[in-house]
Design a protein that fits this description.
There is one protein chain. The protein is 26% helix and 21% strand. It is built from five helices and seven strands; from the N terminus they run βααβββαβαβαβ. It has a seven-stranded mixed sheet, sandwiched between helices.
Length: 208
């Protein structure tokens, strides 16, 4: 299949340094095989650690390709983040994912105070059909209920709704918890951006 025959979707991850973007991206490709292949074969479950030998990513190699067949069509998802060698503000993403560290409340605040505003300032001026997801990283660190330093799911969803995000999800790229579900949700949303209806949610923020 030639690349020209694939529908290409640009996906930009934004968030504070150290919130987990690189670890997440390292799980999106495994010798060009989609994460769905590994997860669907039982490599991961909510309590099973993913292999530690996932590919080491270099910022100079961005965007990171992710090839998949979905809805009887071939897609090429190109993932980039704010460490891209090309100034990320010059990107023209089809889909934006705001990332935060569940164990770092400040990183959640910055999704609203910094990164959501950056999307509006740099990427939405020329087009208003870019879906935005709020993604909580490092879910494995939420181990004790009542820990005030940890962001709970209800708070994350509330912030996503206040920012008028289209979707909210959480995962742990380290353990693999909910990675399959998040990647499927990302893939479906990305694929929808190539359709007439687009990938934005109707009726408010959708919870994965």
């Amino acid at each position: 299949m030639d690349d020209d025959e694939r529908a290409t979707v640009s996906i930009l991850l934004l968030g504070d340094s150290g919130c987990g973007k690189t670890t997440f991206l390292s799980q999106t490709t495994d010798n060009q095989r989609p994460i769905f292949s590994r997860l669907s074969q039982g490599v991961s479950s909510p309590h099973t650690r993913l292999p530690a030998s996932h590919p080491l990513l270099r910022d100079l190699d961005q965007p990171f390709p992710f090839n998949i067949r979905l809805y009887n069509r071939h897609y090429r998802f190109e993932f980039s983040d704010t460490a891209s060698p090309e100034n990320w503000t010059l990107h023209t993403p089809d889909f934006a994912i705001l990332c935060y560290d569940i164990s770092d409340r400040r990183s959640l605040q910055n999704t609203a105070q910094v990164w959501r505003k950056a999307v509006a300032r740099h990427h939405v001026q020329d087009r208003e059909d870019i879906p935005v997801m709020l993604l909580g990283m490092k879910r494995d660190l939420r181990v004790e209920e009542g820990d005030r330093t940890i962001v709970d799911p209800q708070e994350g969803l509330r912030v996503a709704q206040e920012m008028r995000c289209d979707r909210y999800a959480e995962c742990s790229a380290l353990t693999g918890e909910l990675m399959k579900e998040v990647m499927e949700d990302v893939a479906r949303t990305a694929a929808k951006t190539t359709t007439e209806d687009g990938g934005m949610s109707l009726g408010g923020c959708a919870l994965m």
